[in-house]
């Protein structure tokens, strides 16, 4: 009977091997019971002596005794093996659970570190007019603005701050930093007059 070696983790194939042994043991036990059945239906407990106390001569006593002995041994082995199967399955599940918890913790840590490395946004682009300076520079709806020229999260009070920067920068490129889909993106934006309203659109 294969013993599980405690020094290494249980694998699926260990469990399969144990189950195979369990099936073999069950087949042997069944064969022994069939042998007893073949001996005039003598089970595990029927007397092997006749009414006068003599050994029965209608059955093969040696075969019956051997079969009974084997059944007892095999059943003990079977019990021990079932305990091993149970422990192996338990270890496998515990390891899966541990791995799952570890993966989740790693994913969480990664998400946290990404969030920490991204600067804080102070405004969000909710519309970009096609053909406008903003559109030509590559600004997109849902971009979160982190820096707009000299304006950032530390000195931003309201949208008037941005309007002031835009007016002072007409025709000159402005450095704009946005967060797009969780990544920092730099956009070069030049405020200028165009067909639509304002210098940006």
TrEMBL record:
Residues passing through the membrane, by range: none
GO biological process: proteasome regulatory particle assembly
Gene3D superfamilies for the chain: 2.30.42.10, 6.10.140.1710
PDZ domain ranges (all copies): 90-182
Pfam families: Nas2_N (PF18265), PDZ_6 (PF17820)
Domain of life of the organism encoding this protein: Eukaryota
Keyword Chaperone belongs to the record: yes
Entry GO CC: cytoplasm; nucleus
Coiled coil: 71-115
SMART domains: PDZ (SM00228)
Keywords: Chaperone, Coiled coil
InterPro entries assigned to the protein according to its UniProt record, in alphabetical order: Nas2_N, PDZ, PDZ_6, PDZ_sf, PSMD9
Record's subunit section: Interacts with PSMC3. Part of a transient complex (modulator) containing PSMD9, PSMC6 and PSMC3 formed during the assembly of the 26S proteasome.
PANTHER family: 26S PROTEASOME NON-ATPASE REGULATORY SUBUNIT 9
Protein family (similarity comment): Belongs to the proteasome subunit p27 family.
Function: Acts as a chaperone during the assembly of the 26S proteasome, specifically of the base subcomplex of the PA700/19S regulatory complex (RC). During the base subcomplex assembly is part of an intermediate PSMD9:PSMC6:PSMC3 module, also known as modulator trimer complex; PSMD9 is released during the further base assembly process.
Name this polypeptide is given: 26S proteasome non-ATPase regulatory subunit 9
Species: Atlantisia rogersi (Inaccessible Island rail)
């Amino acid at each position: 009977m294969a013993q599980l070696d405690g020094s290494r983790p249980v694998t699926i194939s260990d469990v399969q091997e144990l189950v195979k042994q369990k099936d073999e043991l069950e087949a042997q036990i069944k064969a022994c019971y069939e042998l007893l059945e073949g001996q005039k239906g003598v089970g595990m407990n029927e007397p092997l002596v006749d009414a006068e106390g003599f050994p029965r001569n209608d059955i093969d006593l040696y075969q019956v005794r051997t079969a009974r002995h084997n059944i007892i041994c095999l059943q003990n082995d079977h019990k021990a093996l079932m305990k091993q199967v149970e422990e192996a399955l338990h270890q496998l599940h515990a390891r899966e659970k541990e791995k799952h918890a570890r993966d989740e913790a790693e994913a969480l840590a990664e998400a946290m570190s990404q969030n920490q490395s991204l600067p804080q946004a102070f405004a969000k682009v909710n519309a970009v007019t096609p053909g406008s300076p903003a559109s030509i520079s590559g600004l997109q709806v849902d971009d979160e603005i982190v820096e707009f020229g000299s304006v950032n999260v530390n000195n931003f009070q309201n949208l008037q701050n941005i309007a002031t920067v835009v007016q002072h920068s007409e025709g000159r490129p402005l450095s704009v930093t946005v967060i797009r889909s969780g990544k920092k993106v730099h956009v070069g934006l030049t405020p200028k007059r165009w067909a639509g309203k304002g210098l940006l659109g």
